[in-house]
Every structure is written in structure tokens, then in C-alpha cells.
Design a protein that fits this description.
The protein is α/β, with parallel strands linked by helices and 289 residues long. It has one domain (4-224, 251-285): Rossmann fold (3-Layer(aba) Sandwich), CATH 3.40.50.720. It is built from ten helices and 13 strands. It has helices at 13-22, 48-58, 72-77, 79-100, 131-145, 168-177, 195-208, 224-234, 265-271, 278-285, and strands at 4-8, 27-32, 40-42, 62-65, 103-109, 150-154, 157-158, 182-185, 189-190, 193-194, 212-215, 222-223, 242-245. Helix 4 runs parallel beside helix 5 (131-145). The structure holds NADP nicotinamide-adenine-dinucleotide phosphate. NADP nicotinamide-adenine-dinucleotide phosphate (NAP) binds at residues 8-9, 11-15, 32-34, 44-46, 66-70, 85, 89, 107, 109, 154-157, 164-166.
Length: 289
Amino acid sequence: MPTRVLITGAAGQLGRALARAMSSKMDLLFVDTIQATSDVTLCDITDQAQVEEAVRSFKPRFIVNTAAFTDVDGNEREPEKARDVNTTGVEYLLTASGEVGAQLVQVSTDYVFDGTAGPYLEEDEPAPLSVYGRTKLEAERNVLENGSHTVIRTNVLFGPYTESKASFVGWIVNSLRAGKALRIVDDQINNPTLTTHLAEAICSAIEEGATGLYHYGGLEFASRYEFTLKVARHFHLPTDGISPVATKELDQLAPRPLKSGLICSKMKMDLNVMNATISEALSEAFPES
Ligand SMILES: NC(=O)c1ccc[n+]([C@@H]2O[C@H](COP(=O)([O-])OP(=O)(O)OC[C@H]3O[C@@H](n4cnc5c(N)ncnc54)[C@H](OP(=O)(O)O)[C@@H]3O)[C@@H](O)[C@H]2O)c1
């Protein structure tokens, strides 16, 4: 019988990639707060009764939680919502997992680090700068301290589904197509990650029953400015309106980790996963561009 997997945040960019990666191999239930497609069941992870109902009726072997309040500045404006979605919702999923013997795979972020000494390994000490980072870290700790579960941290996700508010690539392409000038930070370093590859890595983690903490990111480290230029060139969009700016000049509400990114050698070793350069990933996600 195929393994039963419940995917939360199924209408988001990672949720959709997971659906594509897993649908031929696993028995899936997709849940989200919006019914983006007919196969998505409505379930708000901040509503414990809804979470219990979904988990008890489907009885998954695994729950992959991609649902999150991902607007980093929005988290500063609405810290209660941030805690509800990013921490308390995960607690409800953890409790429901325990009731049916499911393993929780929690997706987390490099924003748990302060960005002074990245890229980071799993054993590096987190020191979040923002409400988003703190609420995600609290959830991670709860998951890892309460059973044989998995936390996979990632960073700067992008993929074929660019309508998500969390898609940096979608924002760049839409802005450039609208003729907007962009000031992009050249002092925030990450390894941008293709959702399709992360979804395959999560699939491997499930197939191998991997537990504990893992990092997963792309093969290439770049500043947001360098990444933006690569995206613009891939989509044959003009680059002359893109200018570099220092993070401190932007006055963003939430402080960002600067020298960040994730080293994923542990995951490569344990699960034999692959990752790609930015250009390879863009060509895979947007072959027609
Ligand atoms: N995007 C990135 O660059 C990035 C980087 C590092 C880590 N991550 C992590 O990766 C995971 C997936 O991110 P993503 O980029 O796929 O985000 P996304 O596109 O915003 O998808 C998240 C989904 O969760 C839904 N959701 C929000 N609140 C919910 C709730 N209370 N109950 C159920 N569903 C809810 C969202 O719906 P609405 O859109 O309606 O709110 C959205 O469909 C998240 O855990 C995020 O923290 C993302």
C-alpha cells in the first residue's frame, strides 16, 4: 500500500512541488486555508479541531508541514499571528501526529541564524534576529524534542509556481515586466533553492525515514542582487533598472541575516540528494523562458 502523506500549505510554492514529486508514489492529502485546486481540503493549522479532524480521518504515516506565515516584515507587524501559525500550528500538528503515530517533517528556515558567520551547518547555534526566525525556531525545537521527527531548513525558495507571495523570483519577474526599477540588496548571501529539488529531498527523507535536523539549499551562493541579475537574464528582461543597495539603506521592519545560506553536506551524505546551480535550476523551472 502506498505511504500516506498529509501535506499542509499545499497551495504554496513548496506544497505544489511536493504534490508533483510525490503523487505517483504516495497516497496524499493536501490541506490549506484556501482551496486553490479541487484536491485541496480546507484546514487551518491554527485551528486544533480542524487539524485533529484531518489527521484522524486520513491517518497519515507522515505529515509534511509547509504552511507558514512567510511575510518576514508582516511577522513583525503581527507577532500574534506569527506565533499562531509558525509555532502553535506546528504544536497542533505534533500533537495530532502523536495520536496516529505519524512522523512530522517540519520545513524551516535559515532565518533562525543571525547571518554573522554563514553559510551554516546543522550544529551551528541559532540566534534569530526577527519574529519570523524566533517563531520558526521555537517550532523546530518543539518538533525535535518531542519524538522521532524531522526538521529541514531551507532558504530563498523559488520554482515554477511564481504566484506565491513568498516567491522572490515571481516578485522580480513581475516587477521588471511592469517596468519598475529595483533596488536589491547586495549584502545578503544565500544559496537559492529550487522547490522541485527540495521536494525530491523531502521525498527521499520520507522514503528513508530520516529523523533529526537537516539543511537543504542550492549548490551556488549569491547575493540577492547577483541572483536577481541571473533571473532577469534568464527571462530576457532588462537589467539596467536593477541597482545594488545595502540592507541598512532599506529600513525594512525585520532585520535580515546577511552572511547566511545553508551547507547541505549532511543531507547529501545521508540521503544521496542532488542540488543545482542557479542557472541550472532556472532552466529546469522555466525551460520556455
Ligand atoms: N519562500 C522562501 O523563500 C522560504 C525560505 C526559507 C524557508 N521557507 C519555509 O518553507 C516553507 C514553504 O514556504 P513557501 O515558499 O512554499 O511558502 P508559501 O508559498 O507562502 O506557502 C505556504 C502556504 O501555507 C499557507 N498557510 C498560511 N497560513 C496557514 C494556516 N494557518 N493553515 C494552513 N495553511 C496556511 C499559505 O496560504 P496563504 O498564502 O493564503 O497565506 C500558503 O498557501 C515554509 O515553512 C517557509 O517558512 C520558505
